[in-house]
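Sequence, please.
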C-alpha cells in the first residue's frame, strides 16, 4: 500500500485516504468533530480505557487537509481574534511553616491521585508558584499526585505520556521505530516533581520517588487500562545534578540534542537536558520491544 502521509509514526495509505473521502461525502452536514468520532469508530481507534482518540484523529484530518488529500467542511466555530493564552493556575494559600526534621519523624505519607478531583487545582497552583518551570497542562494520558503528611502538602508529582522521539531512551531500550510507535504508551514521563521549598527533610526526595515508581504501574492500569513498564525524566544540568533520581536508582541515559520535537533546522534552539530512566519491571526491555 502506498503511504501518502505519516502522522505521529502511523503511515496513512492511499486506500485509507479514499475511505476518509467516502466518509466525508456520505456525511456532508457533519461537523469536523462528528466526522472525527465517526472515523475513530470505523477504525476502532480508541485508548486502552475505551475513550476514542478524538483529538488525535481531528489533528490527523487537519494534516490531511493541509496536505491537499481531503477537503474538510468549514469550521463551525472560530475565535474572533488570536487564540487565548492558557490560563495560569491562580495562587493558593497554604501553610508555609518550615518543616525541618528527620524522615522517620515526618509521620505517615499519603499519596493522593488528584486528577479530576478538588485537589487538582491545589497541585497545579503549587507547581505554578514553586517549580522553576511553572505549570503546563500535560498532554495525553497523565496522572497528578499530591503527597501529604498529616494534613500538610509536602510534594507534587505530574506524570504524562512520553515524548515520541528521544534518542538516549530509544537506544537504551533498543526498540525499532515501529515497536516504539506501538509501545510508547507503556512509558511514563515525569514532567514535574516538586518538594515544597519550606520542607527540609533529608532523603525525602529519593524516598518519595521510590514509593511513587513502585505504585505507578498499577495506578496507570487502574486509570487507563494498561500498565507502564519504564519511567523517564529530564533534568537541566545547568541547575541540577539529578541527585535524588540517581539515589532512587534512576540511570543516566544520555543528553538531548536541544532541538525539540518539531525541529526543522537541525540546530539547537533550547537548553540540552540530561535524560534519566528507570525500569519499572524486570523484563521491561522484552515487554517494550515485542511487536
Amino acid at each position: 500500500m502506498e503511504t501518502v502521509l505519516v502522522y505521529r509514526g502511523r503511515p496513512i495509505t492511499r486506500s485509507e485516504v479514499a475511505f476518509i473521502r467516502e466518509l466525508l461525502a456520505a456525511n456532508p452536514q457533519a461537523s469536523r468533530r462528528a466526522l472525527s468520532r465517526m472515523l475513530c469508530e470505523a477504525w476502532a481507534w480508541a485508548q486502552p480505557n475505551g475513550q476514542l482518540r478524538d483529538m488525535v484523529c481531528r489533528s490527523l484530518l487537519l494534516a490531511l487537509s493541509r496536505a491537499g488529500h481531503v477537503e474538510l467542511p468549514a469550521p463551525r466555530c472560530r475565535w474572533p481574534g488570536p487564540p487565548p493564552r492558557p490560563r495560569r493556575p491562580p495562587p493558593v494559600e497554604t501553610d508555609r511553616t518550615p518543616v525541618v526534621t528527620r524522615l522517620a519523624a515526618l509521620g505517615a505519607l499519603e499519596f493522593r491521585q488528584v486528577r479530576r478531583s478538588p485537589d487538582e487545582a491545589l497541585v497545579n497552583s503549587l507547581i505554578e508558584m514553586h517549580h522553576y518551570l511553572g505549570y503546563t497542562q500535560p498532554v495525553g494520558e497523565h496522572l497528578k499526585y499530591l503527597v501529604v503528611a498529616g494534613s500538610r502538602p509536602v510534594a507534587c508529582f505530574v506524570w504524562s505520556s512520553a515524548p515520541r522521539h528521544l534518542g538516549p531512551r530509544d537506544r537504551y531500550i533498543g526498540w525499532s521505530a515501529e515497536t516504539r510507535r506501538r509501545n510508547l504508551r507503556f512509558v511514563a514521563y515525569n514532567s514535574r516533581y516538586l518538594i515544597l521549598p519550606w520542607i527540609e527533610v533529608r532523603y525525602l526526595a529519593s524516598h518519595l520517588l521510590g514509593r511513587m515508581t513502585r505504585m505507578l504501574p498499577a495506578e496507570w492500569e487502574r486509570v487507563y487500562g494498561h500498565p507502564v513498564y519504564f519511567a523517564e525524566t529530564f533534568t537541566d544540568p545547568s541547575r541540577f545534578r539529578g541527585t535524588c533520581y540517581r539515589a532512587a536508582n534512576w540511570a543516566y541515559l544520555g543528553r538531548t540534542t536541544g532541538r525539540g520535537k518539531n525541529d526543522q533546522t537541525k540546530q539547537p534552539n533550547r537548553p540540552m537536558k540530561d535524560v534519566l530512566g528507570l525500569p519499572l519491571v524486570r523484563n521491561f526491555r522484552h515487554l517494550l520491544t515485542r511487536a
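The chain has two domains: 3-66, 105-289.
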